[in-house]
Amino acid sequence: MAIHGGGVLLSVCATACAAVIGVRQARKETREAREARESVWRAPTPGAGAAGGRAVFGAVALLALVPFLLVTLSHGYGAESRISAVPFREILDASAHADLDLSDVRAVNLVGNVLLLVPFGAAAAFLWSGRRRVLKTALAGAVFSLIVEVAQYVLSLGRVSSVDDVLLNTAGAALGAFLVRRWTGRTRARRLTLPRPSRAGGRT
Questions:
Q1: Whose C-alpha in 37, 102, 171, 202 is 20 to 30 A from the C-alpha of 146?
Q2: H-helix or E-strand spanning residue 84
């Protein structure tokens, strides 16, 4: 595990940046949709806006992985790398012995492994549409986390390549996607209540 506090801070900053970009992009799309509905002579072009939004959030998702890679692919404190393949063993052990104070290293490990992929999950969720975006984002996070854990062992970074890290990272990606789905659902509901122009030029 061995999550450094600096990495968690970077992840929180990345989360804030992803949220700011997401809010700006959503407001832009909402404004464009309102202008399209208010103008009788202008046909809406949601395809171009959606493509631009996917490009933006694709870039944000890649940037959100930077703090995750900086933390997980740095050298750990162990003399040699080892594998922990028993699910929930380290999570239960840390939960049983860690204090509620986040200054405890084991508590930071648990929380940090979740937070590190929340920015990625929040940004990647915008790349997919539909109800399965959380599932798709979680699977992407799980695959990426698994690749990193294998790399930790192959590169002999003195870390524990743990299946629990994959589970926690996957939970973080899913959490980010879930928050985005709830937020975009509310935004979509507001869009549906926008006034529609009548053929005579007035609002209905």
A1: 102
A2: strand 82-84
